[in-house]
Amino acid sequence: MGDVFKKVETADGSYTLYNPLFGESYHSVSAGALRESLEKFLFPSQLVERVKRGDLKEVSILEIGFGLGYNLVVTLHHLLEIAPNLRLRYVSLDREITPLIGELRLPNPYGELYERIKKHLAEGKTSFSIGGAKVEILLGEARETIKTLEGERFDAVYHDAFSPKRNAELWTLEFLGKLKGLLDERGFWVSYSTALPVRRALYELGFRIFSTRPIGRRSPGTAATPKGEPLNDYLLPLTEKERERILRSPKAKPYRDPCLCLPREEILKNYLREVEGC
Fold it and tell me: CB–CB of 31/217 below 8 Å?
């Protein structure tokens, strides 16, 4: 699609952007950008059910990959609609915020909230409050900024970086281990990805792994938890075939980055060397 950022219409009528640096769009074009935020992230995270049940009076969410801010606006809208007095903290890690966000619009019921978020960003604010929600966007190399969160606990992790093959450094065993250390034991890590290196890493880290319902394509997403329980039908038990692939496939080797410092090309090269040596 060339070497410039481009607006791309997705299946639900909302727009995403194509990022030429990674050769991918920020959202699934076939699923729809807003639908992906709802059905790959918010609903599988189990936060809606936990807030409705009164299990959580305060919610903390960690996101890997702020992107265009759609996960943020969808999450704030729905959780604060359920519990207007909910104390919500949303922390997102990204290298930078694309200025082209200013050109994007979202339909109701998200439009007004998105405009308020964009106004803060246009003013250069990366820390701001909206109602009862506190938003913090930590800019820079995520493998470094994540270290500033040590000792904190989050009720959900949205892992929404670019795909493992394009952004391997944010999908390694070591980086996922950092995320597990920040996740409450009843919380859920959720992502659109089903890549075998990622699922194998989650398995080796001791997560319980689920598939999430497919939307817009045949493949599902992934959810994982230390000790949480599924409360809705967006989480599906792994099939026997999925379990066997995680355990037996030659490609089921985690990406490795022991120092949290390796270039992505080296991470991928080391992975291919290990797979080819099987």
Answer: yes
